[in-house]
Write a structure and sequence with these properties.
CATH class of the largest domain: Mainly Beta
Strand order of the largest sheet: 1-2-9-4-5
Number of strands: 9
Number of domains: 2
Number of helices: 1
Distance between the termini: 32 Å
Oligomer: single chain
Order of helices and strands: HEEEEEEEEE
Largest sheet: 5 strands, antiparallel
Structural class: alpha+beta
Length: about 160
């Protein structure tokens, strides 16, 4: 972060703006910490398979844990596709960690900045009764169609 002096902004305003930015940053980091305890996923493996001379399939496998104590009704899987092949959605498959058949599948279109976001229900709250849909350990597979990299695919 850099601060640039400007003769048209009074010093008191700069200080107030900096203080506001610091407070906002602290609140944001605290809120991320609170939500990080509810569910987490970590990248574990990414591979690229050449489909043809122009396109390849990038597969990322993540481990995800939804604790029994989760109180948030929604989960989110999001990311970005580097050098996407136009017109291809992102496919997301969620597996119970010990199973080979997906329990949930989604297709998500890319946004203008090549990012994607998929929200899914973790639990339902109906008249005070909580029904969890996801609880425990899962494997998440994310498939993205990209332009075939020039060079060795094994190095990716």
């Amino acid at each position: 972060m850099s601060i640039v002096s400007s003769p048209s902004i009074p010093r008191k305003s700069k200080t107030r703006s900096l203080a506001t930015s610091c407070i906002f940053g602290m609140v944001l980091s605290l809120s991320l910490t609170m939500f990080a305890d509810s569910a987490n996923a970590e990248p574990t493996q990414t591979s690229v398979i050449k489909l043809d001379d122009e396109t390849s399939l990038e597969k990322t496998v993540l481990s995800m844990n939804i604790p029994e104590t989760n109180t948030l009704p929604w989960g989110t899987i999001k990311g970005k596709v580097n050098d996407p092949s136009q017109g291809h959605p992102v496919i997301i498959q969620i597996f119970k960690s010990d199973e080979s058949v997906p329990i949930h599948v989604a297709q998500v279109n890319l946004k203008g900045d090549h990012s994607f976001e998929y929200k899914f229900r973790l639990l339902s709250i109906d008249d005070g009764k909580i029904t969890p849909f996801f609880e425990g350990d899962y494997n998440v597979k994310i498939f993205k169609v990209i332009n075939t990299p020039t060079g060795n695919l094994e190095s990716i």
